[in-house]
Structures are given as C-alpha cells and as structure tokens.
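#lab-general

N.A. 3:47 PM
ok so I finally got the sequence cleaned up, no stray characters, all 476 residues accounted for. can someone with queue access submit it? mine expired

B.Y. 3:52 PM
send it over

N.A. 3:53 PM
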Amino acid sequence: MSIDDLCYMSAYEALKRFRNLSLSPVELLDAILKKANSVADTVNPFADCYFEEARENAKKSETLYAQRIADIGPLEGIPLAVKDLCEIAGKRTTAGSLINAQNICEQTSPHVQRLIDAGANVFARTTIPEFAWLFTTQSRMWGVTHNPWKIGISPGGSSGGSAAALSIGATTIATGSDSTGSIRQPASQCGVVGYQPPHGRIPNIGTSSFNAYAKSGPMTRTVEDCALMSNVMSGRDHRDHNSFISPVQIELSDQNLEGIKIAFSMDLGCYEISADVQRESNEALRVLRHAGAKVDEVSVTWASKLIDLALGNQEVLFAAFLNETVKKHGDIVSDYVPQLLETANSYSTGVYHQSILAAGQAWSDHLGPLFQKYDAFITPTTAHTDIPATGWQKDTVDINGKEYTDTETTMTVLWNMYNKCPVLAIPSGRASSGVPTGIQVIGRPYDDQTVFRIAKAFENEKPWLDCAERRPVLAL
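B.Y. 4:20 PM
back already:
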C-alpha cells in the first residue's frame, strides 16, 4: 500500500484494518508524519507537534489490537490533529498569538478529551489566524498556511490548518471550531467535510459555552468519519451549562433520499456568486435529485440585513477583548489585528440587541415556515474560491466584475445565528482554478440525522479524495 493510500485512508477503514491486523497504528502514523514533514514548508498546516509522543502512543495502540482487547476505544490509534484554540492539559494553546506563547493549559477541552479517551492519537496542533478571527490562516505566531490545491490561496479560516492538513493527507481526522463559519468555510476551500453541530450538542467550556454562535466540531474527509467523531464528541458535560441536551448517535444506514424535500438558494438574495460556484452547485442539485430527493429553488428576500446583524453580534462581543489586547500588546500582535479592531469598533453595541429581535422575526416569518415544508435547506458554503492566503479582512477579490471582501463571500454566519440548526459542509466540485467548491446542508433544529443522511447519499453519488485524480497535487 502506498504512502498516499495510507494518508488518505478514512478512519473507518483504518479501524477495520487495525482490528483484523492488516494495518498497524504505527504504520499509519508513520505515513501521516512523513506527509506532515513533507508539506511543512509549503502548506504549513501545523503549529506545535508531538511526533515522538504520538509514536509511543501508536505502539501502545498496536499492542492493544494485537492482544485482541475487547473494550478497545472506538478511535484507538487514529491520528488526530487538534486546532490551536482547544485546550490540552499540560500543553500550550496559543490561539495563534505570541501573547500566549507561554500559555500551558491546566485542563483539556471536553470534546478533545472524549476523542483522546476514545483512543485518538493527538500528534499535532493545527494553525489558526490570531484569536481565530480571520477567514485566512496567517499569524506572526505560525506564519502563513496555504491551500493544498493552490499555494498562495487561502485554505480558509479560522480552522484553516485542520482543513489543509486533511486535504493534503497529513492527518486522518481533525477538530475545528465555528462562530461565523470557521469550520465550514475552510472545509469548502479545501474540499473536506466540516460539521457545525447544534449549540450544546458538543460541549464547550468557559465563555464559549454561553456564546450560542460558537461551536466545536469534527473535520474529516468523509461523512462517515464525521459521524464517527461526532458520536464520540457529543453529550453532556458538567462544565458546560448548555450541553444538557440529549446526545445523538448518528446512523448512516438509511441513505435513500426518496421522500426527502430540500429547499435551495444560490445566493440567499444578497451574495454575488462566481460562475464556478454556480456551476458546481447546480451540479450538486442534479446529483441530489438523481439520489431521489425533491429539490426546489426558493426565493430569499429577507437575509441581507440579518446577515450583517449576525456578523455585528459577534463583532460586538469581540470588541472589548480586542481593544484591551491592542492597547496592551499592540507591538506583538499580527499586522492585521488593528484592522480587526477597526471593524469591531464600527458596530454599535445596539446591534447585539437588534440581531436578537431580527432573528426571532425572520424565524417566525420565513425560516420556521420553510422548515415546516422542507426537510433541509442547502446553499453554497462560499460564493468564491480563490482568496489570497495573505489577505486581510478588508482586502477584496473580484467576483463578476465587482469587489468583495472574503467576509462577503462566506455564506455561513446566518446558521450561527440559528444555532440549533445542524449544518454539514461537504465538497461539491472544483473551480476552474482547481480550488474546491462546497455546499452546506442545513437541517431543522436538532435534526442531525437528516443532515448526515443527505450528505452521505450525496457522497455516495459523488465521492471525493478517494483516488489520486481527486486529490491535490501541490500547485505552486
């Protein structure tokens, strides 16, 4: 078996091979680490690395499988990369900032602990922009992370390192987090799967627990692996007040879309969509119809102001921290951070209250009725693909002869506002530049099962990253 075959092997397949002893966790990890080293200077997806520690853990996993231990963990021996925003006890978490260069954590984030307890082998942290607040992945702390499909193009952000590592085959599974699109946008940019669960499904700790826009979630190459991770990560945790909802075990046995009704909007009435994204999104609709779903395009006339209020909601929450940080540490933060502060300060605090009122009204008038009629809603994940890797928040790209910032191309924040809706981002195709495109499947509140059912049926019809022809070859 080639290095690439090992590096792109799904967790599901690797676990099956571990159990029948046709593959060793050590063999898989060694392939992953070889790939990680080979892309360090080009893609740059990793922050701190724990390669030697991971090798020792892989040997322990190998022994467990050899001894046929009955109660072996559901992810035993699977290489895991963890976003450099999640805590791991005894290791540093920097949030992509030199300010936190000496920040050693005292506890482990609940969702990461569950993955570790299930046997996943943490071998590295993945890069993020400073404070996870940019749709590109760059910082003074970790440098610039590039898209494996095209060096010089962004892998997205803020979970860009996780998405890039998965896409290039430098990890088997990874974690991400999402408050305005930070799992789904990089998943779309890199051609992988990213899941934003309903708020409370996967526990957070600290302030993230009380920011309903903020979620932690799995990032993978297949829908099946995403379900596997989600089932491990979800459920109650006493440290998260909002995690006390019923856990869900996602099943993928029913992949028949007969009777499933899906609403679709290409632009939510306010995004400028590139020709590449339109083409691949329309092809995705054809695939879903072929799989048995009834898909209707719906008119959206109410979203523009709501989307700006949703962004403003998070900017208002971020503003106080940014003001204090730039005041104290302006000499060591990344060059773009003062621009982030300028954006945050441009929103009045009243926007927060307005966003809550508007969200309630729009659900009552529009989205609530839509989900009464349809089982799911689909849109593109991003309106455009080729965002420069070193782009700042206010830099623009040309779409159909008009200039837009990357924030204005990212079609995700509405579903952070409606935070009980599960959202799964999946690849839909590739732009003419070679950079992937994606769609996001949005479900009724807490209906994770239907979202995964639709995504798996789509994946069956249109697989990705499963052969050399559908994998990135580093384009400089």
